[in-house]
Design a protein that fits this description.
single chain, mainly alpha, 2 helices
Amino acid sequence: MKISEYIRDKIDKLSKGYVFTCTDFTAGVNQKEAVIKSLNRSVKAGKITKLSKG
């Protein structure tokens, strides 16, 4: 499973309005940079909203 698919599946299971950070996804993936990049792509696509930088 790709990192982006893993993140999308995990986000889909969360309730609407749930606030998360990139560290919520690094337990299943050992590549923190890839998680951050995938989350940023989801923000640009309008799938999630970024509340703050970092």
